């Protein structure tokens, strides 16, 4: 037994050296690995990270030999067995060369801006094979040990272990095959066995998938390899969504289709190419079915995007007066008719009109826009009472676009509740942003001058806008014979301040010929609206 004590001591000392080198190199190795930017110093640091540990083993091995020489028994032991030191140096020199080769290969691909072609799992297996080969080479040429029996015994042990670990090896081979063909990689979205999620990690045994609900599923690689996988990222992450919605027979199909396309266009995550489509799918007893299709590239936002589109559809339908029908049983129909019959007995309510009148009187329209040069109101309260029933109160949800820069303007709005954010684009970039509070008037210059919209307006919260369409605007102009003349004077003064911007915007919109910025031209434009 005493003959094995020196060998036990030698092995224990070498293991201790390895553990010490591992501990010393870990902080440096981690720091070098994290410093992987595009700078040349970072590239060199990444290369150094591959050889810092075996390099430390070589240096510490030499220091250990130097220290042992001061111990007579140790010096005698090493002197009688110089092959041990030779094999040690040969092994770690081989490990340095393997790490250097790997680092140079990865450095070359990074300099060319390309990903390393070998997956992590395959790279680990190749690295292990090379290290085993270096170990056998050190045994053969460093210690002079014949590796034939070692290889034979290794093959036998491998067969026994392989038979005992069939499931583990199945996962290993399945993971290796998936890595070779790059079936799965972290970051992609997949569906396996009815479970949809994002791949977070793949290794030699398992694949981890995190669902939209935050649940983590761990699939053995053999299960993944034998399943049908729905890959949402390849060959493209572009996906089509479908929404079914109904409308009544009294609503024109063109009007419904236009509202559906406008609703989906206001959702920023919806792709403009391919363009959304809306069409009739079926005529039902209670209404017409429509199908809206649109495309997105963000699977994780599937439910929120569909929710935004559905919400916009309701608001668009509400403003256009489009009815969404629903199947009615006999009892439900009888109850509905009873409610209608009772409502006929009630006096017509004027709450909406009174609310509209109140919002008009407190808005900038009556206190800033329709005033003369002395600040006197051009329209009295009793006259606003005549206009209020013609004004449409329109609900908007948060994030809807009220008007877009460059579009023609056939109406203007008063912000009754909520908030608006506007932005002006120049050369494809946002040049100006501004916020509007309740009472603000927007879009009146386009209606007065014929110029296109000068800004894009989007609701910041759920909002209500009072829309002055052609009918309400005509009634407003007809209140006084001199009102068009006063408005043209005011509009010309405001247009002169923004002449350069309006003319440039008109040229971009292709409506330069129909835009008038002088007082006489604006007056002719207003008189033409009321037929005078």
Structure, explained:
There is one protein chain. Residues 35-41 and 345-349 have low confidence and may be disordered. The termini are far apart. The protein has 532 residues and is an alpha+beta fold. A hairpin with a 4-residue loop joins β3 (206-211) and β4 (216-220). It has helices at residues 5-34, 40-49, 52-68, 72-80, 82-111, 120-141, 148-164, 166-181, 221-225, 253-265, 302-320, 330-344, 351-361, 364-369, 381-387, 444-449, 470-477, 483-497, 499-509, 519-529, and strands at residues 189-192, 195-202, 206-211, 216-220, 229-231, 239-247, 277-283, 288-296, 392-396, 401-403, 412-417, 420-426, 429-436, 441-442, 456-459, 463-468. The radius of gyration is 39 Å and the shape is elongated.
Read across the widest sheet, the strand sequence of neighbours is 4-3-2-1-5
User: Could you state the oligomeric state of the chains shown?
Assistant: single chain
Percent range of helical residues: 40-55%
* Global shape: elongated
Rg over CA atoms: 39 Å
Estimated structural class: alpha+beta
Q: Note poorly predicted spans.
A: 35-41, 345-349
Describe the sheet with the most strands. Answer: 5 strands, antiparallel
- What is the first-to-last residue Cα distance? 122 Å
Put simply, the count of helices is 20
Chain-averaged pLDDT: 76
Number of β-strand runs: 16
**Per DSSP, what share of the residues sits in E-state strands of 2 or more residues?**
15-25%
């Amino acid at each position: 037994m005493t003959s094995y004590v020196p060998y036990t001591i030698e092995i224990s000392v070498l293991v201790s050296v390895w553990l010490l080198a591992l501990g010393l190199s870990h902080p440096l190795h981690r720091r070098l690995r994290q410093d992987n930017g595009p700078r040349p110093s970072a590239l060199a640091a990444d290369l150094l990270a591959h050889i810092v540990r075996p390099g430390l083993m070589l240096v510490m091995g030499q220091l250990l030999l130097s220290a042992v020489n001061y111990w007579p028994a140790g010096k005698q032991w090493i002197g009688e067995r110089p092959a041990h030191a030779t094999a040690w140096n040969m092994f770690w020199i081989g490990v340095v060369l393997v790490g250097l080769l790997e680092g140079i290969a990865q450095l070359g691909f990074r300099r060319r801006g390309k990903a390393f072609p070998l997956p992590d799992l395959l790279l680990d297996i190749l690295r292990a094979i090379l290290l085993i080969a270096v170990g056998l080479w050190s045994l053969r040429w460093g210690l002079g040990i014949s590796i034939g029996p070692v290889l034979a015994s290794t093959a036998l042990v491998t067969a026994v272990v392989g038979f005992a670990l069939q499931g583990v090896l199945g996962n290993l081979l399945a993971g290796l095959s998936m890595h070779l063909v790059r079936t799965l990689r972290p970051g992609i979205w997949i569906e396996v066995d009815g479970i949809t999620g994002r791949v977070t990690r793949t290794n030699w045994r398992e694949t981890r998938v995190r669902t939209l609900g935050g649940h983590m599923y761990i699939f053995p690689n053999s299960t993944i390899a034998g399943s049908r996988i729905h890959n949402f990222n390849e060959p493209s992450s572009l996906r089509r969504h479908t929404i079914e919605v109904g409308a009544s027979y009294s609503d024109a199909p063109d009007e419904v289709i236009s509202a559906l396309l406008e609703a989906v266009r206001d959702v920023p995550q919806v792709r403009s190419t391919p363009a959304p489509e809306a069409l009739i799918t079926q005529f039902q007893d209670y209404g017409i079915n429509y199908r809206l299709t649109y495309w997105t590239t963000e699977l994780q936002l599937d439910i929120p995007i569909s929710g935004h589109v559905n919400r916009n559809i309701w608001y668009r339908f509400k403003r256009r007066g489009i009815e969404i029908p629903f199947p009615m049983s006999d009892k439900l129909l009888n109850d509905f008719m009873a409610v209608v019959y009772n409502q006929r007995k009630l006096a017509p309510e004027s709450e909406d009109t009174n609310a509209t009148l109140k919002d008009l009187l407190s808005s900038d329209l009556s206190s800033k826009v329709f005033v003369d040069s002395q600040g006197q109101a051009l329209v009295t309260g009793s006259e606003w009472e005549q206009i209020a029933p013609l004004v449409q109160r329109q609900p908007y949800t948060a994030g809807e676009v009220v008007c877009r820069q460059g579009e023609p303007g056939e109406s203007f709005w008063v912000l009754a509740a909520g908030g608006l954010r506007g932005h002006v684009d120049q050369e494809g970039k946002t040049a100006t942003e501004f916020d509007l509070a309740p009472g603000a008037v927007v879009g009146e210059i386009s209606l007065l001058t014929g110029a296109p919209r000068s800004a894009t307006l989007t609701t910041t919260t759920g909002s209500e806008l009072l829309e002055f369409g052609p009918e309400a605007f005509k009634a407003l102009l007809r209140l006084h014979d001199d009102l068009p003349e006063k408005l043209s004077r005011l509009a010309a003064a405001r247009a002169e301040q923004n002449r350069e911007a309006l003319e440039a915007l008109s040229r971009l919109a292709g409506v330069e010929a129909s835009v008038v910025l002088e007082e006489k031209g604006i007056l002719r434009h207003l008189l033409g609206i009321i037929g005078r």
